[in-house]
Inverse folding.
């Protein structure tokens, strides 16, 4: 399996803003992916809330998020062309073949593709493929960081419930 970059926020304190933002995003990508570590397949699929949110579904959704923001928004390809669900809610739906290993790998691959897609871009570069219209990379990065942080919080709570026997 591929590994997330070894850079952490503390490693980039004196670096330019883009390196700092990317490090924070990668920390959250890593934390969400690793939230599945040590869970059984049944635990990862366990539904503890009325929505479609499960531990495995959160990471599957995070892979979808990567493709929306760093494929669709950059390449202007449609979600159908990319091969992802039309709506965020659908991205939480688990298929019979989804496993911890397969979802973690898909998430790793989506994150690597996102890094490649943004490698030559600057924070002020404007991207045209989002439904909101043209957006600077800076705004997209901050939006993704916010979403990842929220989902990391969700994962922490779900994981705590699962491991404490409450879920």
């Amino acid at each position: 399996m591929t590994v997330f970059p070894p850079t952490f926020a503390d490693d980039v304190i004196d670096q330019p803003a883009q390196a700092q933002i990317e490090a924070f995003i990668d920390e959250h990508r890593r934390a969400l992916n690793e939230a599945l570590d040590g869970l059984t397949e049944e635990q990862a699929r366990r539904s503890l809330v009325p929505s479609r949110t499960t531990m495995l579904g959160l990471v599957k959704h995070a892979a979808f998020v990567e493709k929306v923001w760093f494929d669709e928004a950059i390449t202007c390809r449609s979600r159908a062309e990319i091969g992802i669900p039309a709506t965020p809610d659908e991205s939480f739906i688990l298929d019979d073949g989804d496993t911890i290993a397969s979802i973690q790998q898909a998430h790793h691959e989506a994150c690597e593709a996102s890094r490649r897609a943004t490698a030559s871009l600057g924070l002020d570069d404007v991207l045209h493929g989002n439904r909101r219209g043209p957006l600077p990379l800076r705004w997209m990065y901050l939006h993704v960081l916010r979403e990842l942080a929220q989902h990391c919080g969700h994962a922490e709570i779900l994981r705590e419930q699962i491991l404490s026997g409450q879920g």
